[in-house]
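User: Predict the full complex structure for these chains.
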Amino acid sequence: MPQKVIAGQIVEVDAEGYLSRPEQWNRALAEALAGVLNLQLTDAHWKVIEFLQRDYRERGAVPGMRRLNKVGGFATKDLYALFPDGPIKKAALIAGLPKPASCV
Amino acid sequence: MKNLLILGAGTAGTIMAHKLRHRLPAGSWRVRVVDEAAEHFYQPGFLFLPFGLYTERDVVRPKRRLLPRGVEFVQAAVDRIEPERHRVRLADGVELPYDVLIIATGTTPVPGQVEGMVDGDWRRRVHEFYTYEGAQALREALRDWRGGRLVVHVSEMPIKCPVAPLEFAFLADWWLTERGLRDRTELVYVTPLPGAFTKPIASQVLSGLLERKRIGVIPDFAVARVDNDRHALVSWDERQVPYDLLVTVPPNLGAEMIERSGLGDEMNYVPTDRHTLQARGHENIFVIGDATDVPTSKAGSVAHFEAEVLTENVLAQVRGQPPPARFDGHANCFIESGFGKGFLLDFNYRLEPVPGRFPFPRLGPLALLGESRLNHWGKLAFKWIYWHWLLRGRPIPFVDHQMSLAGKQIPEGALKAGAFG
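Assistant: Here is the predicted structure of the two-chain assembly.
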């Protein structure tokens, strides 16, 4: 597993920069991961990140857009404004979760 | 007399009827299966219908004939489940009591969930192959195809049989080549996910496959609407993908009856314990197949493996014991890749698809995550196995419900520990 120093911390990441060990995640790391994506985290970003983490703990999968809309209460437009070009994959990366995926 | 009630006579419900009828004493247990539809479809065959490789005879059988003796088939729509009263109310008002309930009501494509999807272009330029009617209509559309832009599209996840749209693109590439239309057709694959292949090992092993087949990929596309005037998909971030023929996978939702019963999540899937397959919060309700929310593929192989676990857990429940068996998320899927070849995937909650041999280490004869002719023949042979073996609840020789690690090449760190295993 490749290692990387992010926010002064040695973490394990996969080829695309997603954390391999979710237990290494913390808020400072999230800020740094967001910085790499040219994002400055606001309260609105944090609400999305925390929802993803909570939902992943409960269900074992990164939620899709419909679940973010209906259960999380986030509108798709707003998610694109917060995390341009792919809100779920970017928010998942910052949240220390795996990339949203299919079976293969 | 006690009552076992199974809702749904698809793959999962039919298998459970066979397994439990054999194991529950006929003198003390009545087994009933409720389903609105009279016909059972071999759904993997829908992929082959549009290309004329299969016909009606391959994919349709009467449901009643597929159920074992001693099981009553109730052809009726379900109004709702009343968990507090341990009974199911049918649309015609009849009430069916249960001691144990198995929900096997599957998932259904709902194209009306995308704005514009069922407007003017529907079944003309916009098609799907997840229903019998849809696959037949698409066959007609392909018959008239003379070239242009063919777009294969996934609306949102999760969908039933997640690899089917990729298989459709591969088969279209082959079929167009055979017909001399490939050079006149631009093939595009549009997905809401970050790529056509999303798992790290598969992405690495299969990288270049789509380029070699000249299939363009448009990732991260969250569809907002279908513009019927411009014949284009439009995303929430206002990107447009024009089509001459659109083959879409509409959003998939669980049964509406689940919502009416107050038992579903936002997609009408039933929150289910991923190991015991018990509905959360309801001891005598079990869920199997596409109707659950467990984090594995919605596929017939999953229902088949779950059935082994569910049989043991239902029998324990009947004896008043806690559920002893644990489902590991095992799925096993053939992927048609065109030109008489195919891939095979074998994976579970803890391990993504990896290369290797299956079912026997070294000997195979099937190749995991590798392209081979034998994998293609395996997929074709599976139709016979499905109708004559799998639906009757018989185990597949040498393939256990628990995924085997033997024969798999597992990179360091790929096998996930603990939490969901």
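Chain B touches chain A at residues 156-158, 162-163, 166, 192-194, 197-200, 202, 206, 219-220, 222, 224, 236-237, 251, 265-267, 274, 293-297, 331, 333, 335, 345, 347, 349, 352-353, 412-413, 419-420 (CB under 8 Å).
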